[in-house]
């Protein structure tokens, strides 16, 4: 028994030693902050003093209507942006993946440019366009007699605008991944389908989409995580307004941590976001692991 | 084979550990040499002084190499040269104004706040309530008390102690485009070039009517009479002033908001009426004060907000040709009573608590030095000097000093020195947004602001060292 364990350890120690540096970094910079965040969420933190308050910070959150608004908005963003991104990327990728290489490169490049531009720059460009007083969109609408248009100052339009801006910036990544995955699908399948007389739509639905399943899972997970953390667009375009109608969990966390100095409450928001992300990602990760 | 692999992997690991420990070893060495430098010799004391951008140069921006830290660096040199208690070294750092709270909160949590902080008083009040600042009462002498008017001391006093040494102030006023007034036939309402004009509320309404109806569209297309903004907390002091227009006191003696009365509602109704009537820029709920300022400089707004720094910068932009040149003048925020509504941002230094008593001592002496030395305080002319002696000596240089001075009797303390003021600011603009969008009536918006605001004040009072000594 001892011999067996010894040989097992000997055989695998090299592997463990190789992952040790990465594990140390992982423990120090990811696991420890998560645990510390959970601990801080149970404390009221003042200058130079910490007081254990149990679940008081969570109670404060659940009594704050803005928190629920932030939670609702975040869910709306996640659902719509992820569906739009996956749907549109599938559409573009399946339309172009088998065309000639130059054309595919051009499409890939043009959709990828916004991904490379910083989100801050993109948000500033959009804010120039959307500014109700001197932005281009409101200027044109006044010019053609539509009156004042204030898409960011209207509770009904602010969410769709932010969804569109984020989607337009993010979709390039998904298109690149899908095209790569589709090019990798075995040609035999398409030839067989052609011989059987399958239509383009049938090829996409029955061959292409199932074949790129793992990519869909991956794109969905990274987009869910990215959108849950959506912050820059909100900070620069709306500041959470009008009347808190575009505030997200991340923006709410930032306000609590850095504007109100409520570190305990901010940590509680962080813990809730962590749990939400975990719940959303686990089933997807599981399916990915199973497939492997 | 296995042994060979084991040996090579252990060697690789050791190399890695050596590299990592080498790095941390260096850090440690650096830290100790740093630490011993400040704690070993009783003579040598090193402190840090932070400031947010205020003005460039020691005396003014025309000096060679003028930058935001020039003044404090110069002060530090002079201070060290004449200081006899310790061999003092002051490290000066400029930090961005919008990162102030973030940097301070992180550094306070880590136990490394700056020793001296030079900034407007109003966003720093929370740090007094949190117990992070040292009282400065003991370094303020009678000469300073008599040279600096009581309103400035009021802004710097929390409980029984003074926490900020007033240096200069930046009074908030309205600014107007006199050319646009003339084009709309409003010459009779113009004030002098070095005057801060006071209009009655009725006159102000006539001005807005005149600008709305008679401004020539060919010359000023896409222009509006007055700036209105509520996108975020920037410039919210003007919004707070508008809410006092009909005589509301805003805070009671216990430091609670009392806006929810007939006068408060009247003010909110007035704002909403202006907005709906097209007297202001459109989309106030998503326009920031920065946007409004840019629109004013592009002659898209006839009346906007300003303070001496913005006013000077705006004029400089006109001179340098980066913005259109026109005739700009100052006016007070009008009120129903006829008296102008006047407020100011007092700028001054504070001292953060430190575990090292010597550092605190040096920091206090440094603050006293540059806030009271007759040569150093001349730099306060970049804003408006708080010292009557300086204002008097430099009045020929800047004729507006006298006009600002005449306003000081109408000044109100817009923060009320309440705890949690930074958090309180976040409660106002969402309510104003709801008001402008029509999501809430003026009554409802005022009521909700008062309830939300008082909740913030109450919870911050519980943790305030001023309210719980």
UniProtKB/TrEMBL annotation, chain A:
<feature type="transmembrane region" description="Helical">
    <location>
        <begin position="215"/>
        <end position="240"/>
    </location>
</feature>
<feature type="transmembrane region" description="Helical">
    <location>
        <begin position="260"/>
        <end position="282"/>
    </location>
</feature>
<keyword id="KW-0812">Transmembrane</keyword>
<feature type="transmembrane region" description="Helical">
    <location>
        <begin position="158"/>
        <end position="180"/>
    </location>
</feature>
<keyword id="KW-0472">Membrane</keyword>
<dbReference type="InterPro" id="IPR051393">
    <property type="entry name" value="ABC_transporter_permease"/>
</dbReference>
<keyword id="KW-1003">Cell membrane</keyword>
<dbReference type="InterPro" id="IPR035906">
    <property type="entry name" value="MetI-like_sf"/>
</dbReference>
<keyword id="KW-1133">Transmembrane helix</keyword>
<dbReference type="GO" id="GO:0055085">
    <property type="term" value="P:transmembrane transport"/>
</dbReference>
<feature type="transmembrane region" description="Helical">
    <location>
        <begin position="70"/>
        <end position="97"/>
    </location>
</feature>
<dbReference type="GO" id="GO:0005886">
    <property type="term" value="C:plasma membrane"/>
</dbReference>
<keyword id="KW-0813">Transport</keyword>
<protein>
    <submittedName>
        <fullName>Sugar ABC transporter permease</fullName>
    </submittedName>
</protein>
<feature type="domain" description="ABC transmembrane type-1">
    <location>
        <begin position="71"/>
        <end position="284"/>
    </location>
</feature>
<dbReference type="Pfam" id="PF00528">
    <property type="entry name" value="BPD_transp_1"/>
</dbReference>
<feature type="transmembrane region" description="Helical">
    <location>
        <begin position="12"/>
        <end position="35"/>
    </location>
</feature>
<feature type="transmembrane region" description="Helical">
    <location>
        <begin position="109"/>
        <end position="129"/>
    </location>
</feature>
<dbReference type="InterPro" id="IPR000515">
    <property type="entry name" value="MetI-like"/>
</dbReference>
<comment type="similarity">
    <text>Belongs to the binding-protein-dependent transport system permease family.</text>
</comment>
From TrEMBL, chain B:
<protein>
    <submittedName>
        <fullName>Sugar ABC transporter substrate-binding protein</fullName>
    </submittedName>
</protein>
<dbReference type="InterPro" id="IPR050490">
    <property type="entry name" value="Bact_solute-bd_prot1"/>
</dbReference>
<keyword id="KW-0732">Signal</keyword>
<feature type="signal peptide">
    <location>
        <begin position="1"/>
        <end position="29"/>
    </location>
</feature>
């Amino acid at each position: 028994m001892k011999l067996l364990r010894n040989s097992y350890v000997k055989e695998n120690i090299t592997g463990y030693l190789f992952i040790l540096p990465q594990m140390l970094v992982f423990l120090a910079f990811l696991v420890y902050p998560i645990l510390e965040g959970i601990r801080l969420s149970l404390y009221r933190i003042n200058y130079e003093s910490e007081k254990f308050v149990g679940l008081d910070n969570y109670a404060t959150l659940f009594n704050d209507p803005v928190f629920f608004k932030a939670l609702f908005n975040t869910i709306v963003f996640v659902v719509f942006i992820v569906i739009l991104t996956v749907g549109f990327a599938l559409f573009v990728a399946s339309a172009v993946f088998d065309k000639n290489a130059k054309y595919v490169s051009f499409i890939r490049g043009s959709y990828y440019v916004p991904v490379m531009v910083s989100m801050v720059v993109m948000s500033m460009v959009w804010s120039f366009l959307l500014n109700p007083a001197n932005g281009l969109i409101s200027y044109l609408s006044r010019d053609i007699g539509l009156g004042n248009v204030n898409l960011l100052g209207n509770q009904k339009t602010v969410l769709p605008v932010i969804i569109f801006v984020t989607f337009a910036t993010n979709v390039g990544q998904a298109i690149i991944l899908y095209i790569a995955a589709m090019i990798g699908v075995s040609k035999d399948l398409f030839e067989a389908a052609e011989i059987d007389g399958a239509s383009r739509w049938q090829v996409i639905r029955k061959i292409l989409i199932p074949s790129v399943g793992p990519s869909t899972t991956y794109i969905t997970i990274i987009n869910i995580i990215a959108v849950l953390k959506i912050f820059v667009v909100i900070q620069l375009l709306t500041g959470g307004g009008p009347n808190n109608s575009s505030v997200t969990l991340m923006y709410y966390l930032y306000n609590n941590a850095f504007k109100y100095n409520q570190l305990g409450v901010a940590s509680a928001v962080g813990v809730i976001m962590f749990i939400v992300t975990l719940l959303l990602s686990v089933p997807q990760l599981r399916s990915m692991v199973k497939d492997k | 084979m296995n042994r060979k692999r084991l040996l090579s992997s252990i060697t690789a690991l050791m190399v890695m550990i050596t590299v990592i420990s080498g790095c941390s070893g260096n850090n440690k060495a650096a830290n100790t040499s740093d630490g011993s430098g400040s704690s070993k010799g009783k003579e040598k004391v090193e402190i840090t002084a932070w400031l947010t951008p205020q003005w460039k140069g020691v005396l003014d921006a025309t000096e060679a190499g003028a930058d935001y830290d020039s003044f404090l660096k110069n002060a530090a040199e002079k201070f060290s040269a004449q200081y006899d208690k310790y061999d003092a070294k002051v490290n000066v750092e400029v930090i961005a104004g919008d990162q102030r709270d973030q940097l301070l909160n992180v550094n306070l949590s880590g136990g490394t706040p700056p020793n001296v902080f030079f900034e407007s008083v109003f966003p720093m009040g929370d740090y007094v309530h949190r117990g992070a600042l040292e009282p400065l009462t003991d370094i303020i002498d009678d000469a300073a008390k008599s040279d600096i008017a009581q309103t400035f001391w009021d802004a710097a006093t929390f409980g029984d102690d003074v926490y900020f040494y007033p240096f200069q102030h930046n009074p908030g006023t309205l600014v107007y485009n006199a050319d646009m007034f003339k084009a709309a036939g409003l010459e009779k309402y113009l004030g002098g070039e070095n005057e801060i004009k006071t209009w009655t509320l009725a006159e102000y309404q006539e001005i807005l009517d005149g600008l709305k109806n008679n401004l020539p569209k060919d010359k000023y297309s896409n222009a509006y009479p007055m700036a209105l903004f509520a996108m975020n907390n920037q410039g919210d002091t003007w919004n707070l002033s508008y809410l006092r227009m009909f005589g509301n006191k805003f805070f009671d003696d216990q430091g609670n908001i009392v806006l929810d009365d007939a006068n408060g509602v009247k003010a909110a109704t007035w704002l909403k009426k202006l907005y709906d009537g097209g007297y202001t820029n459109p989309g106030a709920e998503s326009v920031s004060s920065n946007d409004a300022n840019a629109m004013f400089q592009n002659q898209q707004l006839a009346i906007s907000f300003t303070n001496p720094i913005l006013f000077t910068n705006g004029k400089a932009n006109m001179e340098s040709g980066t913005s259109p040149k026109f005739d700009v003048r100052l006016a007070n925020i009008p009120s129903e009573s006829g008296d102008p509504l006047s407020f100011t941002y007092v700028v001054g230094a504070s001292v953060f608590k430190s575990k090292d008593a010597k550092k605190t001592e040096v920091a206090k002496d440094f603050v006293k030095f540059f806030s009271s030395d007759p040569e150093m305080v001349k730099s306060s002319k970049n804003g408006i000097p708080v010292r009557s002696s300086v204002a008097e000596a430099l009045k020929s240089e800047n004729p507006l000093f006298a006009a600002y001075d005449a306003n000081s009797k109408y000044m109100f303390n817009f923060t009320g020195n309440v705890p949690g003021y930074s958090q309180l600011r976040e409660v106002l603009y969402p309510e104003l947004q709801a008001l402008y969008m029509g999501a809430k009536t003026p009554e409802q918006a005022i009521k909700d602001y008062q309830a939300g605001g008082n909740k913030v004040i109450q919870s911050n009072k519980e943790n305030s060292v001023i309210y719980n000594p």
